[in-house]
Write a structure and sequence with these properties.
single chain, about 80 residues, mainly beta, 3-stranded antiparallel β-sheet, globular
């Protein structure tokens, strides 16, 4: 079962389609296969970072910028409230 939605290879966040416990692993493939371990519980419909997002970097979902990071976000972390539009 897919645990998250990733629509575009440019996405640096994924949206969960189920509740995820801390330590859960999500696999995805865009060209190459990658695994991300979520670092805290993430509820259905919420986002987590697919890669490290540095302060000031664009947060991209569905191939579109949804904000910029106000602080660094580690891979597997929830980006909110660390972004602004």
């Amino acid at each position: 079962m897919n645990k998250a939605i990733i629509v575009d290879p440019l996405d640096n966040v994924a949206t969960t389609v189920t509740d995820l416990e801390a330590g859960s692993t999500v696999e995805f493939r865009f060209g190459s296969k990658k695994k991300v371990k979520v670092r805290q519980p993430i509820r259905f419909g919420h986002k987590f970072a697919l890669t490290k997002i540095t302060k000031g970097e664009k947060v991209i979902k569905y191939g579109e910028m949804i904000g910029r990071a106000t602080q660094s976000i580690e891979e597997g972390d929830k980006p909110f409230p660390s972004i602004f539009l």
